[in-house]
């Protein structure tokens, strides 16, 4: 490094010696921006790593052998194929319920016949380990992050750690799996190497495996949502960085000109400023990434629970971070810093060495900048309006990425408009104030002068407040709709899940009980929906009993000829489809479904579309009787509606006791009352949005920090502006009060813009983002309480941010205020 | 060593172009001291900026030791300023975050010519010894201007350019600073060009010229 560069850099950095707060705020901005972003990315990276492990395990390119008649495979089929010289290998798969309510995916393999090179086979197996595997007590392989969970079950064989397995998955010998899953002679799959060309007996058919068990588009949407929240936090954090950098540059304008006069070339000066950014950025990124990992560790259990509950996606509860996470975290923080600092570097490169101390010129430039901002903001809002119109005119074509683009355009466009709008409002206020309100007039005029410096922090506050209101309204509306929907769907007082062999007997027994009013049996089966092009996609069939209570309450979104006609059609040959399935396949009442049944393809007309919040899958509702007859669906949960009574709880307890005595109902899940089910569903809901709320609150905190940074950094300049007022007889206490009123006023003005923006945001979330991400559309609810809260939050954030600078001003000795005159 | 030939400089203003310097010719020999006098707005600061290579003339040439400044690139002009010129401003322009010693050696370090013995000598001659760990805000106005003069002399320049060097000081302190400047210039053997409106500042200089409405006049005219 040359003497010029070394000395220039040291001189530039020396600025932070008398201004440690500025450096601290710069680092703080980088730290929070990077920490929230890195935290979210750590969660995403860990989840993706879990998905990758699952995909590697389940997406082997082995072919499957199935029965032509679609009947389940058995041990006899396996033996018949082997005898015919077909080198198939059997696999059993199922969910193993553990004692504490958790479950593991158990996969049983037969290692001697399993084709080599598949992820299921252990690559480093030797003769001794194979013997251990095959002979009692056998062995089971489990991922390191699920070892503790597996250890809690005494039924499992000795465990070996296999880091290649996905979380909550256990691989063991097929004999052990058959016993633990109580499968008898039934097999899940028969697999064969794709390059083995053999003739199959006529009863069998060779198929290529379906798409791998990836978590799917819905879980991807969840991660995209998290990324969007992280990005918002990053942007708001970078506002702090920009504000701190801007002030550091403004205060060093004189220094830059002096250095140029003393012989530092302009290019060297910009390079030194860039190097300073790099140094500070590296430190901030390091701090941020480390904190992000800590934040992710705290949030990951909730996220894993959400992904499991909402999307059936199993994610490890412990963090696994690939190398590109660290590099990516660094790159995004430094990239953000360069973005935040680019305009400042440009300004530094344009410093005129002759214009020593021309503050007026700088202000004029700022005014021009404001005009350009308003123009660009208007342009962005125009594009946003066009995009919304475009998305609205193409239902079903709502791309998630376009939805987020719309959100970004709305936020950025309005943020750019904020400073000119605030300026205009202050200008109007100046003319409205009575002539004798001297101090008020001064306060308004002074706030106008402060506005260029405050505008970035206010923009950050606007983004945070509107995101808070928008997401809050969406979640609040979702909550109302969801609870309402739960009430409509969970009509039985008790849900009983009997073993298959006792289902008929239990049904009869309950029918005889005097306290029982109605029984609501259900059945469930998986099949394939065949579309117009002949392509089949998996779909869940859900059987219900169309009893009057269900017909009264079951929510329907769309019908062909009204509710009554829809229910009447259902009892004949029609079906209901859930909103997700309807949107995904562009279905509506009146359309005809083609479904693969145990005996060929069956068709049925859609009578209605119903809401099905929280379900990631497409679902079709049929009467239980038809489901049992055509799709061989086994009996499922039985809903019991009690007869109206004053003593519901006692009646429920009596029935539970009698049921437990009469039937073998294993585990807590076999008998659940409605209240417990609602409680669990609500808990899942709350947990799902816990991370959203946490990130929202953190973003608001970051915006508060942006404001504090700005206020602290300009405290010195402010002192010089306030000292004359003090000299004219305004007490320090009064000055502090004026400062607080100015800031709270500006924050309230910002909040007034944040309210319509937040409502627009909620509209986009409900009408575009949710539909694209989850497949359902919620009604938009407006909460006046939340709007009021936005105003209160804005005032609170501004007051909190102003507290420290105000306290310092209040405590300032008069001697220091006098020095302002000496300096003048 | 410094030659300005046929210098013209015009600035745009809302009322139309304003000619600040009009066909100015000026020469300054090595070791010579020259005071350029004139009222506010006479163009003397512009002339100083052109001499320092901070700005370029519209026409005419500025040569330093035979090197035409307008032929040099911006980095080359900056290098020339760093190594061969010393600048003293009316507002001092010290770096508030650097100590007295670091301010004094700033340009010398930029030029790669930091000489501790010379710095100590300068500190002593400027009456700032013992204050080297202080910061500019802890110094009086006179001390700050002395420090600014020291900073300009620390890299041992060939030419010192001073813009109203005592304009911010009271008469007594200004006389002290001026005397010190003269002594140090004599000791170092560098040339001095001072622009000032004060006859007190101009009096001790070897030569005096007056600038009025952008044209160079003989003193007294």
Keywords:
heterodimer; A: 824 residues; alpha+beta; 4 domains; ten-stranded mixed sheet; eight-stranded mixed sheet; 25 helices; B: 221 residues; alpha/beta; Rossmann fold; six-stranded mixed sheet; four-stranded antiparallel sheet; globular
Quick gist of this model?
Chain A is an alpha+beta fold and 824 residues long.
Would you kindly provide a written description of the structure presented here, covering whatever features stand out?
- The complex is a heterodimer of chains A (824) and B (221).
- Chain A is α+β, with helices and mostly antiparallel strands and 824 residues long.
- Chain A folds into 4 domains: 1-59 and 218-357, no CATH class; 60-207, no CATH class; 358-487 and 689-824, no CATH class; 498-664, no CATH class.
- The model of chain A is unreliable at 210-214 and 356-360 (pLDDT under 50).
- Chain B has 221 residues and is an alpha/beta fold.
- Chain B has a single domain, classed as Rossmann fold (3-Layer(aba) Sandwich).
- Helix content of chain B is 33%, strand content 26%.
- Chain B is built from 8 helices and 10 strands.
- Chain B has helices at residues 44-51, 74-84, 100-104, 106-110, 116-125, 141-153, 171-188, 199-202; strands spanning 2-11, 18-28, 33-37, 59-64, 67-68, 85-88, 159-163, 191-196, 207-212, 215-217.
- Chain B has a 6-stranded mixed beta sheet.
- Chain B is globular, with a radius of gyration of 17 Å.
- Chain B starts with a strand and ends with a strand.
- Chain A binds chain B through residues 2-4, 6-8, 11, 14-19, 254-255, 257-268, 353-354, 356-357, and chain B through 49, 52, 54-55, 74-75, 78-83, 85, 87, 89, 91, 93, 95-98, 102, 106-107, 109-112, 135, 151.
């Amino acid at each position: 490094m040359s003497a010029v560069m070394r000395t220039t850099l040291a001189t530039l950095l020396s600025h932070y010696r008398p201004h440690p707060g500025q450096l601290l705020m710069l680092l703080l901005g980088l730290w929070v921006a990077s920490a929230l972003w890195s935290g979210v990315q750590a969660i995403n990276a860990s989840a993706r790593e879990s998905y990758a492990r699952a995909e590697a395990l389940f997406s082997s390119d082995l072919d499957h052998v199935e029965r032509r008649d679609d009947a389940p495979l058995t041990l006899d089929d396996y033996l018949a194929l082997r005898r015919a010289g077909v080198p198939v290998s059997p696999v059993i798969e199922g969910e193993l319920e553990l004692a504490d309510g958790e479950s593991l995916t158990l996969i049983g393999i037969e290692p001697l016949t399993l084709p080599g090179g598949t992820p299921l086979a252990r690559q480093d197996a030797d003769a001794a380990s194979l013997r251990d595997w095959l002979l009692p007590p056998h062995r089971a392989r489990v991922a390191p992050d699920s070892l503790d969970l597996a250890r809690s079950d005494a039924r499992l064989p000795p465990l070996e750690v296999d880091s290649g397995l996905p979380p909550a998955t256990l691989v063991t010998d097929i004999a052990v799996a058959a016993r633990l899953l109580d499968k008898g002679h039934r097999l899940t799959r028969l697999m064969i190497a794709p390059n083995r060309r053999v003739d199959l007996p006529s009863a069998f058919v060779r198929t290529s495996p379906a798409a791998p068990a990836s978590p799917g588009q819905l879980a991807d949407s969840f991660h995209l949502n998290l990324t969007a929240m992280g990005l918002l936090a990053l942007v708001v954090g970078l506002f702090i960085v920009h504000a701190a950098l801007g002030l550091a540059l403004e205060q060093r304008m004189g220094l830059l000109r002096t250095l140029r006069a003393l012989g530092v070339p302009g290019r060297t000066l910009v390079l030194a400023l860039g190097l300073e950014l790099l140094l500070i950025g590296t430190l901030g990124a390091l701090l941020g990434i480390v904190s992000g990992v800590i934040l992710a560790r705290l949030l990951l259990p909730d996220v894993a629970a959400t992904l499991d509950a909402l999307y059936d996606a199993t994610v490890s509860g412990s963090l696994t971070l690939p190398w590109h996470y660290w590099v990516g975290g660094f790159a995004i923080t430094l990239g953000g810093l360069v973005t935040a600092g680019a305009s400042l570097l440009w300004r530094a490169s344009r410093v005129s060495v002759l214009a020593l101390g021309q503050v007026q010129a700088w202000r004029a430039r700022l005014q021009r900048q404001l005009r350009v901002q308003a123009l660009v903001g208007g342009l962005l809002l125009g594009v946003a309006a066009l995009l919304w119109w475009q998305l609205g005119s193409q239902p079903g074509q709502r791309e998630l990425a376009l939805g987020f683009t719309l959100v970004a355009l709305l936020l950025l466009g309005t943020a750019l408009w904020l400073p000119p709008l605030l300026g205009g409002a202050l200008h109007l206020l100046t003319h409205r104030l009575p002539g004798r309100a001297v101090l008020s007039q001064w306060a308004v005029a002074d706030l106008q002068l402060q506005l260029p410096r405050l505008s970035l922090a206010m923009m950050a506050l606007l983004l945070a407040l509107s995101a808070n209101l928008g997401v809050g309204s969406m979640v609040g509306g979702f909550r109302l709709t969801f609870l309402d929907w739960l009430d409509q769907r969970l009509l039985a007082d008790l849900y009983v899940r009997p073993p298959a062999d006792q289902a008929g007997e239990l049904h009869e027994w309950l029918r005889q009980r005097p306290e029982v009013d109605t029984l609501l049996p259900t059945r469930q089966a998986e099949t394939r929906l065949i579309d117009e092009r002949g392509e089949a996609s998996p779909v869940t069939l859900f059987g219900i009993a169309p009893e009057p209570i269900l017909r009264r309450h079951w929510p329907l979104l769309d019908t062909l000829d009204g509710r009554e006609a829809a229910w009447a059609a259902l009892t004949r040959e029609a079906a209901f489809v859930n909103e997700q399935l309807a949107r995904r396949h562009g279905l509506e009442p009146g359309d005809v479904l083609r479904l693969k049944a145990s005996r060929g393809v069956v068709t049925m007309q859609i009578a209605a579309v119903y809401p099905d919040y929280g379900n990631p899958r497409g679902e079709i509702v049929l009467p239980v009787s038809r489901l049992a007859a055509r799709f061989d669906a086994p009996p499922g949960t039985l809903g019991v509606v009690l007869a109206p009574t004053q003593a519901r709880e006692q009646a429920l307890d009596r029935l539970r006791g009698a049921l437990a005595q009469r039937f073998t109902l294993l585990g807590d899940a076999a008998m659940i009352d409605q209240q417990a089910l609602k409680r669990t569903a609500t808990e899942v809901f709350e947990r799902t949005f816990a991370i959203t709320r946490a990130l929202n609150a953190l973003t608001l905190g970051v915006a508060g920090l942006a404001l504090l940074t700005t206020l602290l950094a300009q405290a010195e300049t402010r002192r010089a502006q306030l000292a004359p007022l003090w000299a004219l007889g305004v007490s320090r206490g009064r000055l502090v009060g004026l400062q607080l009123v100015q800031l709270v006023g500006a924050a309230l003005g910002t909040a007034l813009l944040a309210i319509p923006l937040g409502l627009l945001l909620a509209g986009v979330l409900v009408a575009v983002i949710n539909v694209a991400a989850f497949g359902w559309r919620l009604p938009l609810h407006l909460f006046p309480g939340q709007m009021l809260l936005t105003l209160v939050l804005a005032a609170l954030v501004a007051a909190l941010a102003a507290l420290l600078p105000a306290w310092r001003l209040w405590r300032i000795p008069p001697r220091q205020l006098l020095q302002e005159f000496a300096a003048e | 060593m410094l030659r300005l030939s046929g210098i013209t400089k015009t600035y745009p203003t809302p009322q139309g172009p304003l000619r600040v310097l009009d066909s100015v010719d000026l020469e300054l020999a090595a070791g010579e001291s020259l005071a350029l006098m004139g009222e506010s707005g006479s163009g003397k600061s512009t002339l100083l900026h052109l001499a320092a290579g901070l700005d370029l003339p519209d026409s005419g040439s500025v040569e330093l030791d035979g090197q035409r400044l307008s032929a040099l690139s911006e980095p080359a002009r900056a290098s020339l300023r760093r190594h061969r010129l010393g600048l003293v401003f009316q507002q001092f322009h010290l770096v508030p975050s650097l100590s007295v010693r670091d301010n004094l050696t700033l340009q010398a370090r930029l030029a790669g010519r930091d000489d501790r013995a010379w710095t100590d000598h300068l500190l002593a001659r400027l009456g700032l010894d013992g204050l080297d760990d202080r910061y500019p805000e802890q110094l009086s106005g006179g001390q700050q201007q002395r420090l600014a003069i020291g900073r300009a002399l620390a890299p041992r320049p060939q030419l010192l350019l001073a813009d109203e060097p005592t304009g911010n000081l009271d008469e007594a302190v200004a006389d002290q600073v001026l005397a010190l400047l003269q002594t140090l210039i004599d000791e170092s053997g560098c040339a001095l060009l001072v622009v000032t409106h004060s006859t007190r500042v101009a009096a001790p200089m070897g030569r005096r010229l007056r600038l009025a409405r952008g044209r160079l006049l003989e003193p007294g005219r």
